[in-house]
């Protein structure tokens, strides 16, 4: 099993969710986050004053899938979330040692 953690632009969330559902992903966790990478924030003008925005709003997706499906999920997120502009996000893929469905006690791939 693999844990795929992706950071994407907030307005891409629904499009990515639909694409992942379309390839058979049955669940995901979504968190609103703030961060920065290569773009290192930006400046904005508010009520006539310019100020620095050091952390940019992003969405963090966490998806656990079978190892066989991981490459397809990464490809789908990459293709769907890409705008071609700085700040499109990052994707990390980690191994999952164990998964347990609390309600039934099912484990590992049966739990996802």
Shape: elongated
CATH topology: Alpha-Beta Plaits
Strands, total number:
6
- Taking all Cα atoms into account, the compactness measure Rg is 17 Å
Low-confidence stretches: none
Main sheet record: 4 strands, antiparallel
Helix-strand topology string:
EHEEEEHE
Query: Whole-Å distance between the termini?
Result: 9 Å
Query: DSSP helix count?
Result: 2
The CATH architecture: 2-Layer Sandwich
Strand content: 35-45%
CATH class: Alpha Beta
Which bin fits the share of residues in helices? 10-25%
What strand order characterises the main sheet?
2-5-1-6
Estimate the mean pLDDT confidence. 90
Give the domain tally.
Answer: 1
Query: From the helix content, strand content and strand pairing, which structural class follows?
Result: alpha+beta
Describe this structure in words.
The chain has 112 residues and is an alpha+beta fold. The protein has a single domain (2-111), classed as Alpha-Beta Plaits. Helices cover 22% and strands 36% of the residues. The protein is built from 2 helices and 6 strands; from the N terminus they run E-H-E-E-E-E-H-E. It has helices spanning 13-22, 67-81, and strands spanning 2-8, 29-35, 42-46, 49-53, 56-65, 90-95. Strands 2-5-1-6 form a 4-stranded antiparallel sheet, covered by helices on one side. Strands 3-4 form a two-stranded antiparallel ribbon. It is elongated, with a radius of gyration of 17 Å.
């Amino acid at each position: 099993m693999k844990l795929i953690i992706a950071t994407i632009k907030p307005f891409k969330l629904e499009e990515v969710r639909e694409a992942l559902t379309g390839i058979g992903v049955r669940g995901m966790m979504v968190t609103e986050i703030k961060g920065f990478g290569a773009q290192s924030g930006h400046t904005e003008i508010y009520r006539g004053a310019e100020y620095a925005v050091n952390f940019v709003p992003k969405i963090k997706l966490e998806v656990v899938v079978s190892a066989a499906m991981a490459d397809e999920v990464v490809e789908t997120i990459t293709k769907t979330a890409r705008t071609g502009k700085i700040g499109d996000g990052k994707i990390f893929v980690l191994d999952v040692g164990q998964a347990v469905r609390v309600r039934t006690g099912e484990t590992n791939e049966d739990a996802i």
